[in-house]
Amino acid sequence: MLTKNAAGVAARKRLSMTVNGRAVEIEIDIRESLLDVLRDRLQFTGVKQGCSVGECGACTVLLDGTPVNSCIYLAAWAHGKTVTTIEGIAQDGKLSPVQEAFVEEGAIQCGFCTPGLVLSTTAMVESGHTYTHDEVRRELSGHLCRCTGYQKIVEAAERALRDAESAVDESPV
Amino acid sequence: MDHKVVGKSAQRLDAVAKVTGRAKYTDDFFERGMLVGKVLRSPHAHALVTRIDASKAKALPGVVAVLTPQDLPQIKFATAGHPWSLDPGHRDVEDRLILTDKARFVGDAIAAVVAEDLLTADKALHLIEVEYEVLPHVLTAEDAMKEGAPVLHENRPGNIVSSFGVQFGDVEAEFQAADQVFEGDYETSIVQHCHIESMSAFAFVDTDGRIVVNSSTQIPHIVRRIVAQALGLPWGRVKVIKPFIGGGFGNKQDVVVEPLTAAMSLAAGGRPVRYCMNREEVFIDTRTRHGMKLHLKTAVSNEGVLKGIHVQVLSNTGAYASHGHSIAMSAGGKFRPLYDFRAIKYEPKTVYTNLPVAGAMRGYGTPQIFFALESHLDDIARKLEMDPIELRQKNLIKVGHMDPLTKNVVRSFGIPECIAKGMELIHWDEKKKAHQQQTGPRRRGLGMACFAYASGTHPVALELAGARIVMNQDGSVTLQVGATEIGQGSDTVFAQITAETLGIPVDMVHVVTTQDTDITPFDSGAYASRQTFVTGIAVRKAALEVRQKALEVATRRTGLPPAEMDIRDCMIVEASLGRAVCSLGDVAMDSYYDRILAAPITSDTSANVRINAMSYGVTFVEVEVDMETGKVEVTELWNVHDSGTIINPKLAEGQVHGGVSMSLGAALLEQMLFDPHTGKPLNNNFLDYKLPTILDTPKINAAFVETFDAAGTFGSKSLGECPTISPAPAVRNAVLDATGVAFHKIPLYPQVVFEKFREVGLLAERSVEHV
Q1: CB B127 within 8 A of CB B57
Q2: In chain B, pLDDT over 70 holds for what percent of residues?
Q3: Backbone angles phi, psi at B454, to 5 degrees
Q4: Which of B46, B154, B159, B617 is within CB 3.0–4.6 Å of B144 for a Cys-Cys bond?
Q5: Looking at residue B175, what DSSP letter applies?
Q6: Contacts with B, A 145-164, CB within 8 Å
Q7: What span, in angstroms and rounded, lies between the C-alpha atoms of A16 and B328?
Q8: What pLDDT score does B767 carry?
Q9: How high is the pLDDT of residue B2?
């Protein structure tokens, strides 16, 4: 949201970042969170606001590939960085393997926590690391979900990681 | 029965929209020039506003309007999401104003600001000058009923909202004649829904002068009525739109932000205004689950036959009635079609206190009642030296049971099979043997608990559902329902029912997922686990009408009477031969473009469902208790459900997982805390309120015993709320099994478990010395 102080003046800054592969240049109020800028200014509404204080994980985006809570990350800090929101995950209308795993495993109910969880899982998959069951749970533990009891979410994440591993195994060396 | 679509795990219709971030929730819509609303809340638990001066706030640049109680209609309205009752004696309690000059809890809405942006709105709130006359407050139901207690609502001098109970048989005579009489006290804490999407709405006045409210609600048609009532407008002047919703769990079966949001827009000349609560506000000024205190007294024979039961309930409903009067009453009816008591006396008291408002939450009071009852049954079994499963088995009702009060008939009763299956799955007998003679610091125990639930509210309330189907030119259909998809998967289930009936694949059923009260058929919405059962009947009825009409059009092509034809895989077939005669698409084109007989194939119907079906289930759980720290860990859990035919197994499992985790949260972690001196909330955020995280949640196993219930569509019964009922008492009973210590209050978080162990001498001396 474009904010003004009482005098109608705000400390402003020109922000350059890459969002979902496209260069974005935008003037921001330095008090704005990355969540505010992404949602209210750029209309990436797939970035969800659940608590505004970094407790629920719904606003997760990838910042240079690392999941962060965009609600407690100042937009100004994203200068020069690459941001991926849920809108940037499917390519040419085709779901990513992580998205497919969430759909196939039935890991989605109300869907409000889904974008953040898909992004954190994507970061795991793209890290190339292998994760034990307990490590998967720990990696995703910053996301709150009230619908699923997390059961099918863990199954989806493990399926995506498994699929990614076997894709690597099968690729020509 | 052989089904093509029903019973299969069809992919949920909105999965792609949600996994790509394209699903739009209330906060994802932007209107040009949209304003924001913020609320000024009382810092006192009970206080009169003696002076309010908004002039400085109004003068702040960027402020468009300031609302105080005097600026709004003084019409008391009820917020509970129930169908309107033509009988004034059956209406919900009308005790609320949009803004109040008498604060009844910390956080009660006193004034509101509409401004260009949030920072300005926040600043303006601080410029509103309010003087309060602080009144004494009361936080517990017992204190609120005492002589001379502070009175919250002038027309309820004893603070009792409702004490309407039921009885049948002669419970006193049963106590007199019984071999044994057992009594027990049980208590549940106040917890919250914790949907991850906030409570949010935006409103504007459209070009026809009507108020359009977009809201994250489970009950759009009810919101329309209540917004109109609260503002004193004709109901048709209000239009409510419900887009995707990020969880509700009953909190959004209530009208919370919508009347104020509409009032804000009216105060701003009809401009669009958004009012989205922050998380701290959601905790204090939406709804909570009632904390209840229950006293159970039961007459039992030496052989373990339950004769009569007297249940006294004290339900703390907070500052306003919301659903309170209805919840205590409704929950008391759920165990009657499970255990065959000859006499029951059920005495609930729902009491106002100066706490946040308690309302509907998944299970609607039933989790509290079953926590008490199922704990009590284990306590009785122990005293009788009887196996707790045997005690329950001995007292189950039988198929054909008719409730003496509701006259609801049990047509399917899968509990015996659920118990047998659960015992097998968790290896009950083997584990029981293995757990004998434990003395170490970590002890395991087994527990179980049963439940019964209804499908919808018949005969207490109206169960009306609407469905509209239009066949498109390609033979696909568009389905509209007034029932709301809130994440549980109802749209997908309705598509499956339609597809099964019409002989088409699910992807040829286009369900309009947004409800708009101008357009969508009338339906009261998502609550009481009613939609698959009640709305399913309406959807099936509409689909059958469309099928019949399609076959009548086909007759013109084939010469066969409709009764000789069927629709299979999008083809009209001669039923006896299985021979395809034309495509459904041909029929659809005829219906649109035949120069003489064209008449599109549609159905616009509703079902007034005057029947109910009881759903059942049982939780089996194994826990491990750390005797030195008091930590209780669930090591294995099975929830086995009889919900009739399961229309979509994967969605059904999802319901069980979520419901069980909610019950485990209430059993082990969750409670809202308040300063006893001031009534101020102590943990109204996700850091201090212990919502289970992924690391707190064990593996949850769902299993089903599929009965066929003649009352439901394709034999189905309710499921949505069911899994939230029995896990908490099962965990409590497992802790009793592991440690021999009977807990009477949840949650069983380490501190209370530790303290109780110390109290009963279970902790070694060295532990005590270290404290």
Answers
A1: yes
A2: 99
A3: -105, 170
A4: B159
A5: H
A6: 145-154
A7: 57
A8: 47
A9: 85
Q: In terms of domains, do A19 and A50 share one?
A: yes
A9 pLDDT tier (thresholds 50, 70, 90): low
CA distances from residue B162 to B356, B496, B705 in whole angstroms, order as listed: 18, 42, 38
Out of A46, A55, A110, name the one closest to residue B21 (CB): A46
E strands in chain A: 12-19, 22-29, 60-63, 66-69, 82-84
Interatomic CA distance for residues A137 and A158, integer angstroms: 10
Cα separation, B299 vs B297, whole angstroms: 7
Q: Which of A109, A111, A137 sits opposite B695 (nearest CB)?
A: A137
Helix count and strand count (H, E) for chain A: 5, 5
| Residue B37 maps to a domain | yes
Domain with A105 in it: 97-168
Residue A5, in any domain of the structure: no
CB B79 within 8 A of CB B258: no
pLDDT digits (tens, 9 = 90+) for B283-326: 999 999 999 999 999 999 999 999 999 999 999 999 999 999 99
> Is A167 part of the contact surface with chain B (CB cutoff 8 Å)?
no
Measure the CA–CA gap between A145 and A110, rounded to whole angstroms: 9
Q: Is the pLDDT of residue B109 over 80?
A: yes
pLDDT confidence of residue A78: 98
Do A51 and A23 share a structural domain?
yes
For residues B569 and B584, the answer to whether their CB atoms sit within 8 Å is: no
B267 lies in which domain range?
31-135+193-285
- Of B409, B240, B380, B368, the closest CA to residue B306 belongs to B380
pLDDT at B769: 46
Q: Do A103 and B16 touch (CB under 8 A)?
A: yes
What is the number of domains present in chain B? Answer: 2
Per-residue DSSP letter, B77: B
Polymer length in residues for chain B: 771
Residue B486 sits at the vertex; the CA angle it makes with B485 and B491, to the nearest 5 degrees, is 20
Report the residue of chain B nearest A133, measured CA to CA: B695
Distances from the Cα of B359 to the Cαs of B55, B317, B379, in angstroms?
36, 7, 30
CATH classification at residue B604: 3.30.365.10
Return the CATH number at A121: 1.10.150.120
In this structure, the answer to whether residues A75 and A111 fall within a common structural domain is no
Query: Which of A58, A88, A118 represents a domain boundary (last residue)?
Result: A88
Region of B740 on the Ramachandran plot (φ > 0 left; ψ -120 to 50 alpha; else beta)? left
3-class DSSP state of B503: coil
Pairing of strands B273-276, B35-41: parallel
Final residue in a domain of this structure, among B260, B285, B310: B285
Closest CA to B731 of B627, B620, B648: B620
Domain count, chain A: 2
**B719, two tokens:** 């499921």
Asked whether residue A140 is domain-assigned, the answer is yes
